[in-house]
Each structure stands twice: as structure tokens, then as C-alpha cells.
Design brief:
The chain has three helices and eight strands. By secondary structure, it is α/β, with parallel strands linked by helices. The protein binds zinc ion.
Length: 149
């Protein structure tokens, strides 16, 4: 039986259960005009069915020059997805459209912009996943570990 809940249904569930803290399920990742994330390790609490990630670009350069996103895949998929994303271009957020290897991704953001995504981790096996920026040339250094417990 699937443990996946539509986001709207989960929201109702959380409202109905005020004892559940959402803090360990929400993560802010800052990026700037360099090739780094403010955090390279994200580990949602075991109680999280969904995770919220906000990417916030605190730099000045536009997306076309120094855009960043946050893409989550299995470790063995990340280089192939990053390569496939190049052909999607900036308009496609450098993420291959409809690619099932992509577990979640934000849009590409430039200076002063942010994007927030919410996605289910209920169906993910416990273990380490890889998040990375798929902007061409960034993924070899802009990456981190997302741990599902
Ligand atoms: Zn980047």
C-alpha cells in the first residue's frame, strides 16, 4: 500500500495534528555568486512524509550568468541527469523534462530570487541521495548529501 499522500491531503493531516513539529522537514539553502551551497548535508527527520526545500540566491548575478537550482537524485544517477539537463537549457531549468530519475527539483534562480518546493519522501528507501546544481559546469562542485532515515 502506498504511503504517498497528496500535498493537500497532508496539509490537512498536519493541521489536524498540532503536536507534530514541521521544523525538521523544512530546509533553507542559500546560494550566491559563487559555486557553493550554504549547506552540503540535509537530513530530514524520520517522521517527515514531505520535505520543503527553499533555495535562496543572495548574490547579484542574473540566472543566465550564475543561476543555481537544487536537484535531487540517487547518487548513481546524478551525473547522467546533470549531463542530460544541459540540453534542457535555462528555460528548462537545466533539468530533463519528465525524467523519472529526478526525485525533486527547484527552478533555476538568479540573484535576489528564491524558489520553494515540497515533495514526498515517503516512498524513498532509507539511505543517501545526492543533491546538486544542474547549471552547466556547477554540478561537479555544487553538490551535497540528502539522507533519508
Ligand atoms: Zn549553480
Amino acid at each position: 500500500m502506498s504511503r504517498f499522500f497528496p500535498v493537500t491531503a497532508l496539509g490537512v493531516l498536519l493541521v489536524a495534528a498540532p503536536g507534530i513539529s514541521r521544523a525538521a522537514c523544512e530546509f533553507d539553502v542559500e546560494v550566491g555568486d559563487g559555486l557553493s551551497y550554504s549547506t552540503t548535508s540535509i537530513a530530514p527527520d524520520a517522521s517527515c512524509d514531505t520535505v520543503t526545500v527553499t533555495i535562496r540566491h543572495t548574490g547579484n548575478l542574473p540566472a543566465a550568468a550564475m543561476g543555481h537550482n537544487w536537484v535531487l537524485t540517487r547518487p548513481e544517477d546524478f551525473q547522467a541527469v546533470a549531463n542530460a539537463g544541459m540540453s534542457a537549457g535555462l528555460d528548462g531549468d537545466y533539468v530533463p523534462a519528465g525524467d523519472e530519475r529526478v526525485i525533486a527539483n527547484t527552478e533555476i534562480v538568479g540573484g535576489g530570487e528564491s524558489d520553494t518546493i515540497e515533495f514526498s519522501i515517503a516512498d524513498l528507501d532509507a539511505g543517501e541521495y545526492t543533491f546538486f546544481c544542474s547549471f552547466p559546469g556547477h554540478w561537479s562542485v555544487m553538490k551535497g548529501t540528502f539522507t533519508v532515515s
